[in-house]
Amino acid sequence: MLWSLAKGDAGFPELGLTFSDPVVTMLNWGEGRRPAVVFGGGYDLNKDRRSQENPRNAAPGSDDSEGNAIYIVDAKTGALVWKAIHGDSTGPVSVTTYQHALLRDSIPSKVNVIDTDDDGLADRLYVGDTGGVVWRADLAGTDRMQWKLNPVLSVGRHAGRPDRRFFHRPDFVPASDGDHRFDAILIGSGDREHPLDTNIHNQFYLFRDRNTVSGEPPASVKTPGDLDDLTDPAATADPAKAGWYINLGTSASGEKALAAPVTYRNRVYFSSYVPQGGTVSGQCGPQEGQSLTYVVNLRDASGVFNFDTTTPAHERSVITGSGIPSSPVVVAVGGNLYINAGNLPPHPDLSSPVDRSGMQRIFWYEKE
User: Fold this and answer.
1) Distance (Å, rounded) from C-alpha 11 to C-alpha 13?
2) Is residue 141 within 8 Å of 124, Cβ to Cβ?
3) CA 188: distance to chain centroid?
4) Contact present, 351 and 345 (Cβ < 8 Å)
5) Cβ distance 361 to 333 under 8 Å?
6) Chain center to CA of 323
7) pTM, to two decimals
8) Could you tell me if 238 and 221 are in contact, meaning their C-beta atoms sit under 8 angstroms apart?
9) How far apart are CA 280 and CA 318, in angstroms?
10) Considering Cα of 45, then 64, then 163, then 246, what sign does the dihedral take?
11) Most buried residue, 49, 142, 222, 315, by CB count within 10 Å?
12) DSSP 82
């Protein structure tokens, strides 16, 4: 046992319920290459109050008093390396502390830690919070006074929208449209602490971060109005937009994304959940609700596979079971990579021997 941290320890008064999976990475904060642990501040039970006081009340939640932080600690000693917290102003207050006036919501999500220049050291982070804001932290260079945190996308209460929340890690995909590079940030909204909620119309997003150099974050935060609404499969994607989004189900279905997406060969795989009483394609859900798997093109959110073989169209999603689904998982079989996106039904498009980017069902069991 090397170390442990608890709320109230020096440097960690903002720590909430520790829901955020820690991520181990390599960093240089002026002491050479060292292993570090990155995690969100956690969950604040304040976010449960809307559901407890009135389950049918869709009014936005209030600011949190704990969990609204991002921490980086020395993996060997547990010492605080750097943290971002809420403050009355925005900017560094010490070599280990950066504050932002808009960091008002807890972060139970796992943080996506990125090495954008492939030098073996992390230089950027992305994470969503329970207020519907996606944050970018720039860790370029060894001077922690130059590290910074900025909101890049706001889709919930702070943008005058429904109380959308993020509980899982966003995906990060270096991409391009023509001669223009961008970093695609993909994430879906959904309240994992209230999976039966049917008040909030959740969405899945792709944000094009065109500031691809770490240390030079975007100057403004985008909202859904800056993105393409590609909910209609016939809609045409506009590459000049800051990204795209699709609505999950109808406004009354309660469909929500409760797990992290995975992108493989420009195909985005993610799962969603429709609670009991919600409907998908006019079908009534069973008692435990329904799980769906989506497979869409990174470029325009169009469908990839023809799940419904009675029509020639490529659907975006297919019902894959009941209950809350897991995240898609990348597995290696026989030297090839496959996506296990949940309980996908057998289909020629998913197991074609010609198209190695297709999928195959994979099973295992333990003999007694």
Assistant:
1) 6
2) no
3) 6
4) no
5) no
6) 20
7) 0.89
8) no
9) 10
10) negative
11) 222
12) E
